[in-house]
Specification:
Layout lengths: L11 E8 L7 E6 L8 H11 L3 E7 L4 E5 L4 E2 L3 H11 L3 E4 L2 E8 L2 E6 L8 E4 L3 H6 L10 E8 L4 E7 L13 H11 L3 E5 L3 E7 L5 E11 L9
Parallel strand pairs: 2-3, 9-10, 11-12
Antiparallel strand pairs: 1-2, 1-14, 3-4, 4-5, 6-7, 7-8, 8-14, 10-11, 12-13, 13-14
Length: about 230
């Protein structure tokens, strides 16, 4: 889907997060700037399902950075690309989640967030023997549960080739760029990574001595939503 093809209600911006060096690819993200228009979980889940993005963020307090994250089928306590995108869009240094505060920073063309691996919902990280094996997959491998397959592209340089398959009951067959899984992989390997995922998205990671991991990438505004009047 091209940037001009997004069909969203008023008040919703669409971003592409973790774009490649050429500004292409990245994972689409819907950001509802005023979450009051969707006051509780049911309408939020319905909108996330209608939009069909891998995640949609509802901003409940833009100054404090209070946000709420949904996939087309469930609510998430934490997710990487929605937080990187929202921090970039609202120029925030802290995002408030139920699991804890996520710190954000801007560094040139990259936006970074710092988070803890224990905040990430469970994922299976499966190493493949070669980049060719990762790229040969035509769909999710058999099995259940969230799967992140990866292979070294250049182990000495920390370069990884990855693909992600949620394998859940929604319309997301393959996730284009998955910050949470990249965070887990970086924590497991104990080193900084430069990950090429999906069609050509890029995710950078940097683990810290305190057990946190930074994940960073480029963000592009794909569609600026028209303001939505709030009649609350």
């Amino acid at each position: 889907m091209s940037d001009s093809e997004f069909d969203v209600p008023a008040g919703i911006d669409v971003l592409r997060v973790f774009c490649g060096p050429d500004g292409r690819h990245g994972n689409a993200l819907g950001v509802v700037r005023d979450g009051r228009g969707y006051p509780d979980e049911a309408p939020r889940q319905a909108l996330a399902g209608r939009l069909g993005f891998s995640e949609t963020v509802f901003v409940d307090d833009p100054e404090r950075g209070q946000v709420d994250i949904y996939t087309p089928g469930l609510r998430l306590p934490f997710a990487g690309h929605p937080l990187v995108g929202t921090a970039w869009l609202l120029d925030l240094e802290i995002l408030e989640l139920a699991v804890g505060d996520v710190f954000a920073r801007q560094d040139g063309e990259f936006t970074w967030i710092t988070a803890r691996p224990e905040w990430v919902p469970p994922r299976t990280l499966e190493r493949y023997g070669s980049v060719a094996e990762v790229e040969a997959l035509t769909g999710p491998p058999p099995g259940e549960g969230w799967l992140y397959v990866w292979a070294w592209e250049d182990e000495a340089a920390g370069r990884v080739r990855a693909r992600a398959f949620p394998r859940r009951d929604d319309n997301i067959t393959e996730d284009e760029a998955t910050g949470a899984a990249a965070l887990l992989l970086s924590a497991e390997l104990g080193r900084a990574l430069n990950i090429r995922q999906g069609r050509g998205s890029q995710i950078l990671t940097a683990p810290a001595p305190d057990g946190t991991v930074e994940i960073g990438g480029r963000v592009v505004l794909a569609l600026r939503g028209k303001p939505a009047p709030y009649a609350g």
